[in-house]
Amino acid sequence: MKLFSVKYDGEAKDELEKAILYYKNISTDLSKDFVSEFRKSLKIIKSNPSIFRIRKNKVRFSILNRFPYSIQYLVKDDCIYIMAVFHHKRNQKTVSKRLNK
Q: Which helix (H) or strand (E) holds 8?
């Protein structure tokens, strides 16, 4: 089984932290649930990065269960690059510049 490393775009890391904080302000348990769902999706991505279809510019989208977020990522060599942790109510154009890199 091939091992993939994971790297985050700086803005993707910020988006993840903001989402965790948002849910923590509502409920600590909800925040923990969000982190758990994020980790489950990331585990799936790491075990089989090509499982999710390419949507735009070689970027793949994994939709989180229970939460209106997706992990948008690129696979290059042995690395998974998390480009965005995207809330579905946001305008996709706000992250398009990062996805076009």
A: strand 5-8
User: Whole-prediction pTM value?
Assistant: 0.87
CA distance 41 to 24: 20
Instruction: Quote the CA–CA distance of 86 and 93 in Å, as a whole number.
Output: 11
Contact call for residues 36 and 25 (beta carbons, < 8 A): no
Q: How far apart are CA 81 and CA 12, in angstroms?
A: 10
Which CATH number is associated with domain 5-99? 3.30.2310.20
> Hey, where are the domains in the chain?
5-99
Q: In terms of C-beta density within 10 A (0-12 exposed, 13-18 middle, 19 or more buried), how is residue 1 classed? A: exposed
- What pLDDT, on a 0 to 100 scale, did the predictor assign at position 57? 83
